[in-house]
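dumping this here so i dont lose it again. seq + smiles for S-adenosylmethionine
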Amino acid sequence: MANNKKYPASFIESILCPNCGSNAQQGFQFEQLQCAVCGTSHFSFGDVPCLFPAGSHHKLIWQHQTASLQHIALQGLATLHESLSRYDLTDATRQRLAEIQTASQINLDTIISLMQKRDIEAIPDEQLSQMNPGDLSEYFDLLLRDWAWDSPTNPNPENNAALERVLTEIEKLPTKPTRILVLGAGAGRLSWDLHVRLQPTYTVALDSNPLVLAAADELVHQREPITIGEFKNFPQIGLEHAHCWSLQPPEDENNARATWFPLGANVWQLPFERHSFDLIITPWFIDVNGGDVRDLIAVIHEKLMPGGHWLNSGPLLFTRHLPVQLKYSAPEVKEFVSLAGFNLISESITRTDYLRSPLEARFRQEQVWTFSAVKLEPHQSKPAIAGALTDWLVMHHLAIPQNNYSSKDSHPLIDAILLLVDGKRSVNDICFEIAPHLPQDVPVKDVVVTLFGQILTDQSANS
Ligand SMILES: C[S@@+](CC[C@H](N)C(=O)[O-])C[C@H]1O[C@@H](n2cnc3c(N)ncnc32)[C@H](O)[C@@H]1O
């Protein structure tokens, strides 16, 4: 595979083994994708380094996802084949079904070939089928929106609007970003366009979904077109039932791709040293990463250098399975941003068409919240937030100050938790340390937060 990437020393020095947290000096060898400290072998997905805690075993998940997709696609194709062999069809029906069949077959072939080219075969895994590891094609439409519906000959304003929203914020920043991390970069268009415009030292386009990573790599780095079929199950009057798109590699006369790095990783186990970036961007991401926005803010805060910037752009359409208390409103998120040690610089709210296909009469409109925030220097004070007992109880990554905490209740677990308070550990750190000693079904964070909440409430009642 074509590989003309130039990983600068600053990038290699910032990379960690996501399993044990070792850096290059300690024995993590990025070029070999091998950790000499914990022995984890990581893997390259074609040309895309993949750094997950399970190392190469993570491939089992992608193989299983590929097999599931293949299974479902083949079932769909068999149904279409059966329908096409009926005697009660007119030519018009036959043609519609045949168009859908062609588009489905193209997609299956393209996806299997993108994965095979990167050493991922369709292999089901019994254990994973009980666990639902997610759908490989969940973000398939992003391939179309990023690279098919929009081309120099057939422009579509959606990508450009996303770029302009982000550039408008970046222009307000006091410094030009040099090391950019895009979390949940999807099929890569926005991070690529930004990289070309801003010419930073490097941009990392990070995602955990192999299909979007493969597509971004195939187009930008391998310079290979991708063929994709789009079809609609609900006929749209006057519009095609199906279309075969040819996604073309973006122009890159100046070889910007040498410093645009797609990376397979999970945001919850980010393989980077603290303070590694001066700009972190979360486009359409804070609501769909599977976790608590407060924890995401902690991750972003840790990986940004002091004075670095966080730029968010997207809606608050939290995934269905997230409990309602974690579906925060914009004012709540802004409180967390302040408590974590950021200063909001600017924000805007716009409405925009979302995934508006040329084959669809219907389309979604989204409310997009774009904001930028600067990470304060450690000595700068944070505001008090109404209703918060203290900042470290809301933002679980902040250090718990030493303060002779004692509880009315006596229990060995309470003693063990209080003993861990050393002025440096946070609620998250304490949870991490005690979790292995508790039964798996105990909600560790609830236990720790409730304990400190009661202690603080009693302290303030007594003072
Ligand atoms: C709604 S899409 C947005 C993609 C892109 N930023 C855009 O604006 O088109 C969310 C992306 O985040 C990725 N993602 C979700 N959870 C993730 C996680 N825990 N770690 C890394 N990527 C994740 C998904 O694979 C998907 O590509």
